[in-house]
Amino acid sequence: MITKHLFIINPVAGKTNSFDTLSRKIYEAIASLDPETNIFEIKTTAAKGDAGVFTKAAADDADEVRIYACGGDGTINEVVSAAVGLTNVSVCPVPVGSGNDFVRCFDGYEKEDFLDISACIRGDTIPCDVMRAGDYYSVNIISVGLDAVVGARQKTFKKVPGISGGMAYKVALGLSFMTAMKNKISFELDGVPLAVGSDYITLAVAGNGKWYGGGFKATPYADISDGLMDFITIRTISRLEFLKYVSIYKKGEHIEKMPFVKYQRCKKIKMISDKPITIQFDGEVQVMENPEIEIIPAATRIILPKKNG
Asked: 141-297 has which CATH code?
């Protein structure tokens, strides 16, 4: 059996160009593999969509294809979206972006584990669910309301020298505070209307993973392989009251400590509004009319780094 190792590097992910450092680590790690049963390739993205194109093309190259998505959450999303339905393809997130939220959901693993290329190429795979709305996919988080607006602005601030992914989120959140706190969106979960206690919500999040926005634990009980989405809504409250609870939300304590939060697990979510809805897929923003989100169980496989011992 031939295994192909494809490293897709987003050279503009994070604050520095990581291509040279990653290439050195890749060549060092690949040297330990049997060249008769393993082939490898490094590709760099130059434009949005490249990672998906590379992923689909690689599926025909070998019996097993292991793709290492070297970038931020957007790069991982692009690779996973293209890998859905490709049964011989598995994906390893290599977090060299700014936020790197997806890798936080793997208990017992640190970011540094996923940066160990040697451990990644020796790692085993686990099944992973994927969320879908129309033609768009999410392996981590889908959000609407305030956070979708913040997500769009965060991309701009991440490019500013000295601003980390977490700080970029906070700055974008502050600027969006005046325009995106009230969103008239209603929801049906598995066909049943959800009562949120108000005609307006500030934000709503569907989680396959747990973290987003550079370290906010929005859906703390989510499991990437349970066949369900974790869904939370926060009805509109005053800005002052919202600010009081931001730290609780970041820590993932909001389900127990914020009485205006609704939490439920489900397989399908329908969002209903008389206006087009801005919706965020792992940091990528789209505008859709009454989107329907569904979970696709075991839609892809994720590679976890091999632990020593």
From this structure: 2.60.200.40
pTM of the predicted structure, to 2 decimals: 0.90
Q: What is the pLDDT of residues 35-60, one digit of tens each?
A: 899 999 999 999 999 999 999 999 98
Q: Are 51 and 77 in contact (CB under 8 A)?
A: no
Nearest to 204 by CA among 190, 189, 223: 189
Residue listed under structure tokens 């009230």: 182
Rama region for 215: left / alpha / beta (φ>0; ψ in -120 to 50; rest): left
Q: What's the Cα-to-Cα distance from 54 to each of 47, 88, 254, rounded to whole Å?
A: 12, 15, 40
pLDDT digits (tens, 9 = 90+) for 178-197: 778 999 999 999 999 999 98
Domain boundaries, the chain: 3-130+299-304, 141-297
Cα separation of 279 and 146, whole Å? 10
Considering the domain 3-130+299-304 in this protein, what is its CATH number? 3.40.50.10330
